[in-house]
Write a structure and sequence with these properties.
By secondary structure, the protein is α/β, with parallel strands linked by helices. The chain has two domains: 103 residues, no CATH class; 163 residues, P-loop containing nucleotide triphosphate hydrolases (Rossmann fold, 3-Layer(aba) Sandwich), CATH 3.40.50. It is 39% helix and 13% strand. It contains eleven helices and eight strands. A six-stranded parallel β-sheet has the order 3-8-7-4-6-5, sandwiched between helices. Strands 1-2 form a two-stranded parallel ribbon. α5 crosses α6. The chain starts with a helix and ends with a helix.
C-alpha cells in the first residue's frame, strides 16, 4: 500500500472485522526506498508508523535504502525503534563495475554540446542510455533539438552522392533512426509505461528524464547513465548512477556544468567519497503535530 491508502482506508476501518484480523496477524512491515521518507512527508510517515504499530502485531521492520547518511539515527527517528544496520561491508551481493567519467562542456555552446553528446550516444547500437536533466523544460528541449539536428543531418546525407554505401548497413543504428524520447512527471500512466517498456525491449536507444526515473527503475540492459548537470545532492547522484550497470558493467558520464567538481581540491575522487546527506524529520514541529493528533 501507499501511505495515502493506508491512512485513508486501512486506519479508518479498524472496526471492520477483516481489517482487525489482518492487523492482528500482521508481523512484518517493509519500508522500501526509505530515503524518500524525508522532510514533512517523512515526518507524517513517522507518525503513521507509530499509529500502525499501536494497533497491529508488527514485531519486525525491514527498511532498505542505498542512499542515506547516518542511517541508524534516521531509521530510529522514523520508526521509533533502534535498528540493526547492515551496510556495504555486509553486502554479499554481486555488484558490476561502474566507471565514472567527468566531462567539462564548452562554455560558449554548452547546450549544443549536450545535444551532440546525445546524438553520439544514440548511434551506439549495442548500448542503451538514460540521461538526467533537472527540469522538465530542459528535457523536452534537448530531445526536440536532437531530433531536429538528426533530421537535418539525414537530409544532408541523402543528398551526398559520395557517401559510402555501407555507412548505413541494415540493422546499424544511425542518425536516420534516432530513437530518443523524453520522460517526466505529468505523462499519462499508459505513456510512461510504454516508454519504460520500449527502453527495456531495446526499441529506444535512450531516454532523457527528470528525476522521475531516479528511483525504482530496474532495466539491466542500461549501460550508460548521462548526468547532464551536477546532481542537486549526493543522494541523487548515487540513485542515478545506480540505474546503469545492473547486470553488466556500466558507465556514468557526469557533466560538470558548474565546474565545482573540477575546481575542488580532490576533484572527482573527492566527490565520489562524499557520503549521502542524512534525512530530516521534524517530529517536534508544532504545526505538524496537531494535524497528526487529529487523525484517527
Amino acid at each position: 500500500m501507499t501511505p495515502d491508502v493506508a491512512h485513508a482506508w486501512l486506519m479508518s476501518h479498524l472496526r471492520q472485522k477483516e481489517v482487525r484480523d489482518f492487523l492482528n496477524r500482521l508481523r512484518l512491515l517493509i519500508l522500501d526506498e526509505t530515503h524518500v521518507y524525508d522532510g514533512v512527508f517523512g515526518t507524517n510517515m513517522a507518525y503513521f508508523i507509530r499509529r500502525l504499530l499501536s494497533v497491529s502485531g508488527v514485531d519486525r521492520i525491514i527498511s532498505s535504502t542505498a542512499t542515506i547518511g547516518e542511517p541508524a539515527e534516521f531509521i530510529e527517528r522514523l520508526t521509533g525503534r533502534k535498528p540493526c544496520v547492515l551496510d556495504q561491508k555486509d553486502d554479499g551481493g554481486a555488484s558490476p563495475r561502474k566507471t565514472v567519467l567527468l566531462l567539462r562542456p564548452y562554455r560558449s555552446n554548452s547546450f549544443d554540446s549536450l545535444v551532440s553528446l546525445l546524438l553520439q550516444l544514440a548511434r551506439i547500437g549495442s548500448s542503451r542510455f538514460l540521461a538526467f536533466a533537472d527540469s522538465r523544460k530542459m528535457v523536452e528541449q534537448l530531445v526536440a533539438v536532437a531530433e531536429r539536428s538528426a533530421n537535418k543531418e539525414e537530409e544532408s546525407t541523402q543528398e551526398d552522392d559520395e557517401i559510402e554505401d555501407n555507412l548505413y548497413e541494415e540493422g546499424t543504428p544511425g542518425i536516420s533512426n534516432l530513437r530518443i524520447l523524453p520522460y517526466r512527471a505529468g505523462y499519462e500512466e499508459e505513456d510512461r509505461l510504454e516508454i519504460q517498456n520500449s527502453l527495456m525491449r531495446g526499441d529506444l536507444a535512450g531516454v532523457v528524464s527528470t528525476s522521475a526515473l531516479e528511483l525504482g527503475l530496474d532495466i539491466g540492459e542500461i549501460d550508460i547513465v548521462l548526468l547532464l548537470a551536477t546532481p542537486p545532492s549526493v543522494k541523487a547522484f548515487w540513485q542515478r548512477l545506480g540505474r546503469a550497470g545492473r547486470k553488466n558493467s556500466g558507465s556514468c558520464l557526469l557533466v560538470d556544468d558548474s565546474g565545482i567538481i573540477a575546481r575542488s581540491a580532490m576533484g572527482l575522487r573527492g566527490y565520489l567519497q562524499k557520503l549521502p546527506e542524512p534525512g530530516w524529520l521534524y517530529l517536534e514541529n508544532e504545526y505538524i503535530q496537531p494535524e497528526n493528533c487529529n487523525i484517527i
